[in-house]
Write a structure and sequence with these properties.
mainly alpha, 2 domains, two-stranded antiparallel sheet, 2 strands
Length: 315
């Protein structure tokens, strides 16, 4: 009997190597009584699940890292401004790379319409933000000449969008930073981030109804509601404790602020969908590019800027 058993093992040793043995006192009717065969893969899966969620989830790990970087730089306004400048360099490059112009656009031209207004607003009189917007049409003239020279008229629209949307959005963030406390600006950014995060997680776990499938297939109505509620509450508390405003006004501004953040996200999603691009780049594991993380801010902060100037019109 032992010889037969040894021959059986030799013939099937490859199969046996895939299993771990767990001897019990009961005969389960198999060839080898008392053996319960547990695949090694199942044990490995259990070990993987026991790992830290931060190391096994790139999206969560990146989100925590981004918050830490933001927190470190937002201890000083000058440091925060430098962080914004760096973000502009990266996000602007990602924007133009998505369109694949087939030409090399010099960085001075690339950043002219976004960096110049930021410098004017931050280092000079903040009221010059209105004057700085005249830079946009000048930049468009410069770009128009470049694009006509290369004969690629059809891609000029992306440059126009960049000047109006990206440049205005980033300049508005600088305006809010310059005219408010560091804590207020930091928490405003965190409010948008919280809205994005909860919208993603709730939509992934509980989402049943698609929001706008032809623009962003993964976004759901349930995620939208969770994002709007969480972001509005966070921004409401920020306004109540860090500004002098009424509860009704704070609630209204918070809801509009977060809503425009959602629109900014959908706006970039539509552009990426049109270009058949999933992410603006692969810079941030689990998130895509930096542009994918800041798209919400570029519509929400101009709205916050307007409210700061005309809040007296809100009861």
């Amino acid at each position: 009997m032992s010889k037969k058993l040894m021959n059986y093992f030799q013939l099937n040793k490859m199969n046996f190597s895939k299993y771990r043995t767990n001897f019990s006192s009961e005969d389960d009717g198999t060839f080898w009584p008392g053996v319960v065969e547990i695949p090694i893969e199942e044990n490995n899966k259990q070990q993987d699940e026991s790992k830290s969620s931060l190391t096994s989830n790139p999206r969560l790990f990146t989100a925590v890292a981004l918050i830490l970087v933001l927190t470190i730089f937002f201890t000083n306004k000058n440091a925060a401004f430098l962080l914004l400048i760096f973000a502009v360099f990266i996000a602007a490059k990602e924007w133009f790379d998505m369109f694949d112009y087939g030409i090399i656009i010099p960085y001075p031209f690339l950043l002219y319409s976004s960096i110049a207004p930021m410098l004017i607003v931050y280092f000079f009189n903040i009221s010059l933000i209105y004057v700085s917007f005249f830079i946009f049409p000048i930049g468009l003239i410069v770009y128009t000449g470049s694009f006509i020279s290369y004969g690629i008229y059809e891609k000029f629209g992306s440059v126009f969008i960049f000047h109006i949307w990206f440049s205005l959005g980033i300049t508005s963030i600088v305006y809010v930073l310059k005219s408010n406390t560091l804590l207020f600006t930091y928490l405003a950014i965190i409010s948008i981030s919280l809205s994005d995060t909860l919208a993603y997680e709730v939509g992934r776990r509980f989402g049943k109804r698609k929001l706008i499938e032809h623009i962003s297939p993964n976004k759901t109505v349930e995620g939208l509601i969770a994002g709007l509620l969480s972001g509005t509450v966070a921004m409401f508390l920020n306004l109540i404790f860090n500004t002098e405003t009424t509860s009704l006004r704070a609630l209204f501004i918070s809801f509009i602020f977060i809503s425009f953040g959602v629109l900014g996200d959908l706006f970039v999603s539509k552009i990426k969908r049109t270009l058949s691009v999933k992410d603006s780049s692969s810079l941030l594991p689990g998130h895509g590019g930096l542009l994918d993380r800041v798209d919400s801010y570029l519509l929400s902060f101009p709205v916050l800027l307007l409210f700061s100037q005309f809040s007296y019109l809100i009861p």
